[in-house]
Design a protein that fits this description.
By secondary structure, the chain is α/β, with parallel strands linked by helices. It contains 6 helices and 8 strands.
């Protein structure tokens, strides 16, 4: 084998190795994995969109389910029911400062799922505290699984949500994440679809 053939073979090996890494990522993200959307969504009085019957994050979760076939688990608490926006954000600030973990209804077995989308609004720089109640209960249940954060917001983007999910689930493969303005979600399905397609669906 001459030197040119050796170099060609070495280059082919490098390309093959690089491609196999990409293929592994694509396989994790493809339609074959069982997917779940875990989310908290607040209906009622919301900033920018007024009093809404369906929360912004719920709409995004429904888009994800439609586009991927994922199941859903909604983190439900009645603690904030009927609250006007200003008292709500004041309470949310106090909960965050205290590290309070409000109770939520029901639960789900995460072992059945390979890919878990985690979404919520951004309240004071991160997800609402009730979501951390869920995280604490399931901190060891997402090891080796792909976790994809998403948020609805009015200027905060992903805030600290991705970092907080990484801390909550240290053994998970936490992805970059996706954010969308709350006032855009009702007409923003195309943005969600573009993001989902970028994940390999």
């Amino acid at each position: 084998m001459n030197i040119k053939s050796i170099i060609t073979a070495a280059m082919a090996l490098l390309v093959s190795t690089a491609c196999s890494g990409d293929a592994k990522q694509e396989k994790v993200m493809n339609k074959e994995g069982k997917a779940l959307v875990v989310f908290f969504s607040h209906a009622g009085d919301n900033y920018s969109v007024g009093n809404i019957k369906v929360g912004n994050t719920k709409i995004v979760a429904d888009y994800i389910t439609e586009l991927t076939g994922a199941k859903q688990f909604e983190i439900v608490t009645h603690k904030y029911d009927g609250m006007a926006y200003n008292p709500l954000i004041k309470l949310a600030k106090e909960e965050t400062a205290r590290g309070e973990l409000p109770e939520y209804e029901g639960d789900i077995d995460l072992s059945k799922y390979d890919i878990v989308f985690i979404g919520g609004p951004v309240w004071w720089g991160t997800y609402p505290q009730v979501m951390f109640s869920f995280f604490k209960k399931h901190t060891n249940d997402l090891k080796g699984k792909t976790v994809i954060p998403f948020t609805t917001h009015e200027g905060s983007g992903l805030a600290n949500c991705v970092e907080d999910v990484k801390k909550a689930f240290p053994g998970a493969n936490v992805q970059k994440g996706f954010s969308i303005y709350g006032h855009e979600v009702r007409t923003g399905k195309a943005k969600v679809e573009k993001w989902i397609k970028g994940l390999g669906y």
